[in-house]
């Protein structure tokens, strides 16, 4: 009986979410719309429509135009749309920056963002010396075993970082750091130094280095990395390319609207 009650509750919640999305789509399509119209479109009682609108209004997703007036899309939608637009701008602007840096370094350059506990590569460019044809764009990579992932971990909120490090971390190679305390100490150094390195932690024979990319408000929104075979991208060379990598990242950050003091 309890399982049936739980199933009914879940079904009701899903239906409420579906109706709330329908309200937003209706307002986006029709503009200012009254509650009677909304209830009719949804096929629900006015009291049900009123409760949905109240929740959406509390989140800033809809607004009522005057006392007992019609409803319209709220500015909260602009905030959500802005986040999506920012990601699209990052991918678009990042391609040109990646290409320029890849030509300078001769190595593969990627830009990655954090998403649901992993790093996702949104842009890539291959340098003249790159030996692999693998396209990492759109690929999900582990945060703890990549240079980009370490940058994203180092600059994310404490609560989220601790939550992610409490999970069992996969050992990809003998060099992968899976001890949470050891990784936390490394992330503190990353935040202090402004870059992260990765030496054969995801793939044997592969080295990488990454730096943060800042958004308009100064938050780290992505990581820019350069990667190559260990015989060419030695630890000494990794330190040498931190500067051009940082300069390219600063240029991309400026295009996104961030200007360091």
TrEMBL record:
<feature type="domain" description="HTH iclR-type">
    <location>
        <begin position="14"/>
        <end position="75"/>
    </location>
</feature>
<feature type="domain" description="IclR-ED">
    <location>
        <begin position="76"/>
        <end position="258"/>
    </location>
</feature>
<dbReference type="Pfam" id="PF01614">
    <property type="entry name" value="IclR_C"/>
</dbReference>
<dbReference type="InterPro" id="IPR036390">
    <property type="entry name" value="WH_DNA-bd_sf"/>
</dbReference>
<dbReference type="GO" id="GO:0006071">
    <property type="term" value="P:glycerol metabolic process"/>
</dbReference>
<dbReference type="GO" id="GO:0003677">
    <property type="term" value="F:DNA binding"/>
</dbReference>
<dbReference type="InterPro" id="IPR036388">
    <property type="entry name" value="WH-like_DNA-bd_sf"/>
</dbReference>
<dbReference type="GO" id="GO:0045892">
    <property type="term" value="P:negative regulation of DNA-templated transcription"/>
</dbReference>
<dbReference type="InterPro" id="IPR005471">
    <property type="entry name" value="Tscrpt_reg_IclR_N"/>
</dbReference>
<comment type="function">
    <text>May be an activator protein for the gylABX operon.</text>
</comment>
<dbReference type="InterPro" id="IPR050707">
    <property type="entry name" value="HTH_MetabolicPath_Reg"/>
</dbReference>
<keyword id="KW-0319">Glycerol metabolism</keyword>
<dbReference type="InterPro" id="IPR029016">
    <property type="entry name" value="GAF-like_dom_sf"/>
</dbReference>
<dbReference type="Pfam" id="PF09339">
    <property type="entry name" value="HTH_IclR"/>
</dbReference>
<keyword id="KW-0805">Transcription regulation</keyword>
<keyword id="KW-0804">Transcription</keyword>
<keyword id="KW-0238">DNA-binding</keyword>
<protein>
    <recommendedName>
        <fullName>Glycerol operon regulatory protein</fullName>
    </recommendedName>
</protein>
<dbReference type="InterPro" id="IPR014757">
    <property type="entry name" value="Tscrpt_reg_IclR_C"/>
</dbReference>
<dbReference type="GO" id="GO:0003700">
    <property type="term" value="F:DNA-binding transcription factor activity"/>
</dbReference>
């Amino acid at each position: 009986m309890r399982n049936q009650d739980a199933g009914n509750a879940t079904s009701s919640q899903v239906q409420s979410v579906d109706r709330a999305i329908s309200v937003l789509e209706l307002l986006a399509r029709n503009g200012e719309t009254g509650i009677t119209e909304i209830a009719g479109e949804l096929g629900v009682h006015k009291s049900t429509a009123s409760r949905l609108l109240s929740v959406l209004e509390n989140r800033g997703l809809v607004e009522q135009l005057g006392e007992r007036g019609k409803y319209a899309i709220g500015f909260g939608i602009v905030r959500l749309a802005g986040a999506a637009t920012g990601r699209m701008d990052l991918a678009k602007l990042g391609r040109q920056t990646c290409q320029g840096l890849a030509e300078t370094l001769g190595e593969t350059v990627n830009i990655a963002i954090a998403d649901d506990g992993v790093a996702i590569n949104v842009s890539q460019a291959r340098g003249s010396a790159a030996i692999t044809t693998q396209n990492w764009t759109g690929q999900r990579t582990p945060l703890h075993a990549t240079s980009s992932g370490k940058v994203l971990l180092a600059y994310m909120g404490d609560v989220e970082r601790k939550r992610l490090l409490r999970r069992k971390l996969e050992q990809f190679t003998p060099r992968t750091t899976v001890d949470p305390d050891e990784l936390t100490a490394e992330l503190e150094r990353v935040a202090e130094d402004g870059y992260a390195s990765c030496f054969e932690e995801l793939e044997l024979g592969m080295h990488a280095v990454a730096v943060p990319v800042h958004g308009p408000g100064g938050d780290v929104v992505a990581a820019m990395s350069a990667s190559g075979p260990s015989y060419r991208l030695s630890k000494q060379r990794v330190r040498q390319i931190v500067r051009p990598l940082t300069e390219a990242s600063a240029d991309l950050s400026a295009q996104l609207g961030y200007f360091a003091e």
